Amino acid sequence: MTSVLHGSQLARLLGRWDAGRGVPDYAALATAVRGLLSDGRLPLGVRLPAERQLAAALGISRTTVTAGYRLLRETGHVTSRRGAGSWTTMPGGARVGAAGIWTASPAPDMIDLGRAALDAPPELASAAAEALTDLPRYLGDVGYHPVGLIELREAIARGYTDRGLPTGPDQIMITSGVQNALDLAIRLLVPVGQPVLVESPTYPNALVGFAARRSRMVTYGIGEAGWDRELLLDILRQNRPRAAYLIPEFQNPTGHLMPVDLRERLPAAAHAAGTDLIVDESFVDLALDIDEMPPPVAAFDRHARVLSIGGMSKTYWGGLRIGWIRAAAPIVQRLAAVRVGVDMSGPVIEQLVAARLLAHAQTVVEARRARLRRQRDVLVAALRERLPEWRFRVPAGGVTLWLELDAPISSPLCRTVEQDGVRLAPGPRFGMDGTMERFLRMPFTLPEADLLAAVDRIVRARGELDRPYRRSYESPALVA
Fold first, then answer.
1. Among 22, 37, 118, 413, whose CB has the most other CB atoms within 10 angstroms?
2. What does pLDDT average to over the chain?
3. Residue 246 bridge partners (DSSP)
4. Average pLDDT over residues 94-109
5. Contact assessment for residue 400 and residue 444, using Cβ atoms and an 8 Å cutoff
6. Within 10 A of 372 (CB to CB), how many other CB atoms are there?
7. CA 469, CA 263: separation in Å to the nearest integer?
8. pLDDT at 480 over 70
9. Is there a contact between 435 and 217 (Cβ–Cβ < 8 Å)?
10. Contact present, 404 and 254 (Cβ < 8 Å)
């Protein structure tokens, strides 16, 4: 089923679409719609409002809307069929590859901002030493624990309880990182080829995971102000996807924090639509400017529709491959049965290290927050001074800035600056093909000196893109 966008909803997304453009209204309307599509704020495959309805919502003539839709059809951004309406497309189609995005380890002098993660905390070494004293307890069995070690499950369950969501260890399953948790949830909840709802932009490897399942992805665009509550709930009701993947805490990559009222409404709306919610809480511990976090989405779940996934990669260390799923106890048992066909169980020693490290959680998290806050503020100041034409909001948590560039140059900019020793993740990585070229994700996880050096090189690369291209010819080699 195709989502239907109402006239008032599209008008809200368009904003002041006709302000000071000096072009015909129909052309300005088409340009504004193309901009929403390329930025990922208007989903692909959504049915646009009827011409009369949009004209009324915008306060313009139907003739203007008709001409605007015709121009969008000519550029391949809208497809129409008599009696069925018009829906959004991209020229050449849109897709997400089923293969993951992988790059080789950077050279020693490369400033790698393609990975939004921190190095290991000093407490990790002592936690590993302490874990070795726990290991003999497990050496007498075969070492397979599909749902995870009890001490680690208890520690994670206490964390949810402290956040206002009473949880027992039988509701926790330990996984080999967050990606493994997501993969298991997809295998359990989403039959091959069924529709799923994903945010746009979103975590790239989530798109890869759904594409590998040949899922039909319905996108929901996150705007400058975050989630449009009514539009998101409308898309759920209209499409009835089998699952929806959401990142409510400091959304990756935009950094938005989902408001409480939407958290309250989502589980009931999902239950009515027959949709399970996969809620990624990878960044929940990294609040930088917020004293009290909103309750988890699962705190409002009355029908076991919410699977919360999290892990230690972002807050602690990516090399510690520990993730988890929090769900109703019967669902955890079903997940364990699925897992046996994938990787049996996680490493015992890593789980013991994780349990010991969580005992130092308060110290580690406070140090992480203080460091990220300093690095974020340094990066924000440098960008505002050196690239004032780029727009962004300062996130209250998480580890990334989502930058709106002055032109759709994200991919060429990233290619150019990599030649100068900076690796970045271009905007299209976070959406469907053909979108997000005006955006760039920039994490603030590296030391201040690296961030300042990266901004210097990005400024140079941006200038290179404005210079006319001159072909250079090498002198031919003499072959004798």
1. 37
2. 89
3. 279
4. 58
5. yes
6. 19
7. 50
8. no
9. no
10. no
Give which of 408, 184, 474, 177 is closest to 311, Cα–Cα.
177
Q: What is the token pair recorded at 324?
A: 């988890």
Residue 150: Cβ-neighbour burial (10 angstroms; 0-12, 13-18, 19+): middle
pLDDT of residue 473: 42
Q: Which residues contact 208 (CB under 8 A, 6 or more apart)?
A: 96, 97, 98, 99, 100, 101
* CB-based contact 305:271 (threshold 8 Å): yes
Extract the tokens encoding 349: 């020693």
3-state per-residue secondary structure call for the chain: CCCECCHHHHHHHHCCCCCCCCCCHHHHHHHHHHHHHHCCCCCCCCECCCHHHHHHHHCCCHHHHHHHHHHHHHCCCEEEECCCEEEECCCCCCCCCCCCCCCCCCCCCCEECCCCCCCCCCHHHHHHHHHHHHHHHHCCCCCCCCCCCHHHHHHHHHHHHHCCCCCCHHHEEEECCHHHHHHHHHHHHCCCCCEEEEEECCCHHHHHHHHHCCCEEEEEECECCECCHHHHHHHHHHHCCCEEEECCCCCCCCCCCCCHHHHHHHHHHHHHHCCEEEEECCCCCCECCCCCCCCCHHHHCCCCCEEEEEECCCCCCCCCCCEEEECCHHHHHHHHHHHHCCCCCCCHHHHHHHHHHHCCHHHHHHHHHHHHHHHHHHHHHHHHHHCCCCECCCCCECCEEEEECCCCCHHHHHHHHHCCCEECEEHHHHCCCCCCCCEEEEECCCCHHHHHHHHHHHHHHHHHHHCCCCCCCCCCCCCC
pTM: 0.83
Does residue 369 surpass a pLDDT of 90? yes
406: which 2 tokens?
Answer: 């002055």
**Distance from C-alpha of 443 to C-alpha of 392, rounded to nearest angstrom:** 13
Contact 31, 75 (CB under 8 A): no
- Asked if residues 279 and 165 have their Cβ atoms less than 8 Å apart, the reply is no
The pair of structure tokens assigned to 281 is: 């809480």
For residue range 426-451, what is the model confidence (pLDDT) as tens digits? 999 998 766 789 999 999 999 999 99
Q: Are 304 and 271 in contact (CB under 8 A)?
A: no
